[in-house]
Every structure is written in C-alpha cells, then in structure tokens.
Design brief:
By secondary structure, this protein is of the alpha+beta class. The protein folds into 2 domains: 4-113, Glycoprotein, Type 4 Pilin (2-Layer Sandwich), CATH 3.30.700; 117-192, 2-Layer Sandwich (Dna Ligase, domain 1), CATH 3.30.1490.150. The protein is built from 5 helices and 8 strands. The two termini are 29 Å apart.
Length: 193
C-alpha cells in the first residue's frame, strides 16, 4: 500500500518541458500516422523512465477538448504521457478526433499521479470531512462502477459534498448513494505547465 510518505519527488523543469514537448509531438505524429509517437524510454533521464500513472488534459479556448489517463503506473512515465496525449486527442469518446486546424490553439496539461491509497470511511459525511479541496484526487469504486476526479476538478466543484456527489454520478451511481461496499482511494498530482 502506498502512502504520501512514499510519493515520488517532483520532476525538474527540464523533465517537465520534455514531457510537454513529447505530448505535443505525439499528437502531431498521430495526425499523420494514426498512432502515438514511438519512444525509447531508455533515451530519457531516470525520473522519466520510472513508472508513473498520468493524465493528459487538452483545452481549446479554455474548454475541455480531451482528457485520458491511467490510475495505475504500468509503464515508464515518458511512455504513459506519450500514449495518453495521443488518446486524449483522438480517442476520448466525448469528442471528435482532433484536427490539424486546432493544434495552434491547443493547451496541453499533464498530471502525474502519486500512487493512490485507500481511505477507510463509514459514510459520505466522513469522506467529505477528510477531503483537502484543491489537493486530493479521488477514486470511487463499487462492483463495475468506477470514477475519478483529478485535483484540478476542484476548480469547477470547490465544495467537497458536491465534488463527491458529482464523482458518484460520473461512476454511474446515484448522487445520494452510499454503501459499505464502496471503495474510496485518494491521490495527489504533480500538474504542469
């Protein structure tokens, strides 16, 4: 089980810029080749070779244009970001595939997740009281229902009770639902630019 004490250290500015550049390159490459940019993770600094889960969020004129990611670290950070950038641009089911004309105005945001750790909570009230608005990412799971909100979602949903209720809806559960079987995990992110 992970805890905040074992979270990876933040990336240096150079590594952050590398990831942002690779995300953009993967989207440009995807426009022509219809798959993510091929990357050899061994060619990058050790922090980018470490397995990290990531989300890539695309904004166009301040509006969401795509957001795809992973909750668990399954591959090198650099590979995860390149794959998620491509998927956010071309495979987010909420949006049509990105077109070349949108590239000049596209904003790319990367969130690197710390490992999620379970919270023991007996009620929605208890969960709401434990949350750190603006800091916590949250995962709710029960049976086949699963949803997450990145910490950046606090900008749209700053009130903890509404944050939790909207996350339940995203997971396909009723807003007022609570069950002893529900699993809740918390994580934080390193987000940039």
């Amino acid at each position: 089980m992970s805890s905040p004490d074992t979270d990876p250290p933040p990336l240096c500015d150079k590594d952050r810029k590398t990831l942002l550049s690779l995300a953009e390159q993967s989207i440009r490459y995807g426009l022509q080749h219809h798959h993510p940019l091929p990357v050899d993770s061994a060619a990058y600094p050790p922090p980018l070779q470490e397995p990290r889960a990531s989300f890539v969020t695309l904004l166009l004129q301040g509006q969401l244009r795509g957001c795809i990611g992973h909750l668990e670290a399954t591959q090198a950070t650099v590979l995860d970001v390149v794959a998620n950038a491509y998927s956010a641009a071309f495979e987010d089911p909420r949006f049509a595939a990105l077109c070349a004309a949108e590239l000049p105005q596209l904003e790319i945001h990367i969130s690197l997740l710390t490992p999620a750790y379970p919270l023991t909570v007996a009620s929605e009230e208890e969960l709401v009281g434990m949350l750190h608005p603006g800091e916590d990412g949250l995962i709710l799971e029960e049976d086949l229902h699963r949803g997450t909100f990145l910490p950046s979602v606090w900008k749209q949903l700053p009130e903890p009770r509404e944050f939790v209720r909207q996350l339940k809806l995203k997971a396909g559960l009723p807003a007022g639902y609570w069950s002893e079987k529900m699993r809740v995990s918390r994580y934080t992110t390193e987000s940039f630019p």
